[in-house]
């Protein structure tokens, strides 16, 4: 049965592919539904006409004519009223094949009956042939949108009649037979052309549909790509920002708003450098997959770029859930990544924030998560931190400091105080260190450690420190020649090209001789870019300035700096003096450091000397200078000069009587 069906389909719908055949079937059915009743109507009228012509009005209820008429009537009524416009392909196919088979059977029956009537009623031959031909042509016309089926009435019913006419013993009948034969051939040829045109139309439509689908698919793909991170398949920053813009829910101060996490892989750069980019990519992909598996059902997971990822919970999380999420993110990164038989290990630091009343924009939401990440990194790598109220206040303060620094108002509000650096042998202050002070009407007192760091981050430290140097130089202009200025240079400042020239220009403007100016630099200067710092420092020493290495012994103190760069002075970090009274070990370390400085050809300053005992110990251990609260707190130039009463033989230093005469 299936084979027969296949064969019938192949004949009825000649096509290059099954897809094309399917389209033909659907198209044929749609057009044919309206024409089919016409086909049955024509057949019925001709059948009845032929019966009346041969048998008159006599009707036998069980004759083939009556049965056939009822069948045709029923089919006509069925197609007009009952046949549902179905969209189910198998059903459509079955209907069409059924109809073609029914047409073939009908034509065979009609043809045999017509031939037998001609034999029975030779005098009615022409009438019978006329009705039969009208039936054949009517049926073919009714089936014109199903060309292969339309051939059936012509071949089965029309052709035998034409041949029969040709066989008549009458020349005019023979002529009509030939003419009829040719008309039928022409009609069949037209149907063939129609069939081909139909199949080409369908394949053309299919090609257009294919092209349109391809264009739609390409567009969908492009839209997806624009929103997607190519490496990990996660959402990219653009998509995340859009989602946050549309779905951010700001909760009350007690919590409940949308939550954003920003994660930064620790140790990723090291793994990338050690094993190459393929390993780096494997780590990123693996971490992306782990985040997706853990959170993608309730949140949007995105890659912001580099080794930074982000997760956005638009519906928020409970306090407990936030803690669980933070722990989970850290756990996910802690698990090593298998790559090329190796186990690659990284960690993650993560900042989380919850949108609250102060999250006024998506930009602020991002900033808070970023600030929390910064805090997480500051404390301990591999940890998470939730943005909180104190941090918000600190950030607000910081933002106001930044604004005042950038507008130039900060430097106008700043002044410089001075702290003496005393020669431990003579008791005389030989230097005074300039220390910046900012008492802001808006923010209160802002410490130099805080604003110097912010100015460095903002990249405006050169300008700020040059202004401060100017202020210090103008105060120092009144000092006696025995007192020199010691001024702190920032690490950032020295890592810029032509730093020395810029500093020189400021000094020139105040006509101060370079040998009365000392610049203090910390090791961080040297850490940033040793070569650059060395060049700038050498230019300064060549111009006659003296250079002090500040805070030596804190942080990354390296002996190699003392070997490679020549410093006139080394200031030992305050922490080295702190325990010197109570710990033998601290004393030994200080002793060693002093010897080290002397061996490097530098004089040595003990910082943070707060008591007489510390001062005495520093002196006995060979320090050349001392600086600290007990020798003079940072104060204005005028107060310092008054307290020191420079020039008098009897120094009035608080501990002046400890100095040798
Ligand atoms: P620093 O260069 O190490 O300055 C010494 C710091 O120690 C000063 O803090 C000073 O007030 C403090 N100090 C002095 N004697 C004692 C003592 O006996 N005990 C203790 N505990 N502390 C003492 P200050 O003024 O807060 O300055 C902090 C840092 O800010 C400075 O550290 C310096 O690195 C930086 N700084 C200050 N002014 C400037 C400036 O004008 N330019 C630059 N670039 N940095 C500056
Ligand atoms: Ca200093
Ligand atoms: Ca210092």
UniProtKB/TrEMBL annotation:
Keyword Transmembrane helix: yes
Gene3D superfamilies found in the cross-reference section: 3.30.70.270, EAL domain
Transmembrane intervals: 61-78, 99-118, 124-143, 150-167, 173-191
Domain of life assignment: Bacteria
Domain spans labelled EAL: 398-648
Alphabetically ordered keywords of this record: Membrane, Transmembrane, Transmembrane helix
Domain called GGDEF: residue spans: 256-389
InterPro entries tied to this protein: Cyclic-di-GMP_PDE-like, EAL_dom, EAL_sf, GGDEF_dom, Nucleotide_cyclase, Rev_trsase/Diguanyl_cyclase
One Pfam short name: EAL
Protein's name in the database: EAL domain-containing protein
């Amino acid at each position: 049965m299936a084979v027969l069906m296949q064969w019938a389909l192949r004949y009825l719908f000649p096509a290059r592919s099954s897809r094309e055949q399917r389209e033909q079937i659907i198209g044929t059915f749609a057009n044919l539904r309206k024409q089919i009743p016409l086909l049955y109507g024509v057949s019925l009228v001709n059948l009845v006409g032929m019966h009346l012509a041969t048998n008159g009005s006599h009707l036998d209820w069980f004759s083939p004519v009556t049965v056939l008429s009822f069948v045709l009537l029923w089919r006509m009524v069925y197609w007009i009223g009952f046949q549902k416009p179905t969209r189910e392909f198998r059903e459509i196919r079955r209907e069409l094949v059924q109809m073609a088979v029914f047409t073939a059977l009908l034509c065979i029956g009609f043809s045999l009956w017509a031939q037998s009537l001609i034999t029975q009623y030779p005098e009615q031959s022409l009438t019978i042939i006329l009705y039969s031909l009208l039936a054949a042509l009517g049926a073919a016309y009714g089936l014109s949108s199903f060309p292969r089926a339309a051939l059936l009435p012509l071949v089965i019913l029309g052709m035998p009649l034409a041949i029969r006419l040709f066989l008549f013993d009458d020349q005019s009948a023979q002529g009509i037979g030939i003419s009829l034969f040719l008309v039928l051939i022409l009609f069949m040829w037209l149907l063939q052309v129609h069939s081909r045109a139909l199949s080409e139309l369908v394949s053309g439509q299919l090609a257009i549909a294919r092209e349109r689908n391809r264009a739609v698919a390409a567009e969908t793909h492009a839209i997806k790509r624009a929103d997607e991170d190519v490496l990990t398949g996660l959402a990219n920053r653009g998509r995340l920002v859009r989602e946050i813009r549309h779905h951010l829910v700001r909760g009350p101060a007690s919590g409940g708003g949308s939550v954003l996490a920003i994660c930064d892989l620790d140790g990723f750069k090291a793994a990338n450098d050690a094993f190459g980019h393929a390993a780096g990519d494997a780590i990123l992909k693996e971490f992306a997959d782990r985040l997706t598996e853990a959170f993608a059902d309730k949140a949007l997971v995105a890659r912001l770029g580099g080794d930074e990822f982000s997760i956005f919970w638009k519906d928020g999380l409970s306090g407990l859930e936030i803690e669980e999420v933070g722990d989970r993110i850290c756990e996910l990164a802690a698990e090593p990544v298998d790559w090329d038989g190796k186990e690659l290990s990284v960690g993650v630091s993560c900042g989380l924030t919850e949108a609250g009343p102060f999250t006024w924009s998506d930009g602020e939401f991002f900033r808070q998560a970023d600030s929390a990440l910064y805090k997480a990194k500051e404390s301990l790598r591999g940890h998470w931190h939730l943005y909180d109220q104190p941090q918000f206040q600190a950030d607000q303060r910081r933002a106001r400091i930044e604004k005042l620094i950038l507008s130039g108002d900060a430097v106008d509000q700043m002044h410089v105080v001075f702290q003496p650096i005393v020669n431990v042998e003579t008791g005389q202050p030989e230097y005074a260190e300039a220390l910046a002070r900012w008492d802001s009407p808006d923010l209160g007192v802002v410490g130099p450690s805080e604003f110097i760091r912010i100015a460095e981050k903002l990249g405006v430290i050169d300008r700020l420190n040059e202004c401060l140097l100017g202020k210090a130089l103008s105060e120092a202009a009144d000092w006696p020649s025995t007192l020199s200025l010691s001024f702190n240079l920032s690490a950032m400042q020295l890592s810029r090209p032509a730093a020395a020239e810029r500093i020189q220009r400021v000094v020139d403007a105040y006509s101060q001789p370079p040998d009365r100016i000392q610049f203090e630099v910390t090791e961080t200067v040297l850490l940033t870019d040793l070569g650059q710092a060395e060049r700038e420092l050498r230019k300064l020493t060549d111009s006659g300035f003296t250079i002090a290495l500040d805070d030596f012994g804190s942080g990354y103190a390296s002996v190699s700096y003392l070997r490679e760069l020549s410093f006139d002075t080394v200031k030992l970090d305050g922490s080295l003096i702190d325990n010197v009274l109570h710990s033998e070990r601290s004393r030994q370390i200080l002793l060693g450091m002093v010897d080290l400085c002397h061996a490097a050809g530098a004089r040595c300053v003990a910082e943070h000397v707060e008591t007489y005992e510390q001062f005495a110990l520093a002196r006995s251990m060979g320090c050349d200078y001392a600086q600290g609260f007990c020798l003079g707190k940072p104060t204005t130039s005028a107060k310092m000069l008054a307290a020191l009463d420079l020039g008098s033989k009897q120094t009035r230093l608080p501990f002046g009587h400890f100095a040798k005469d």
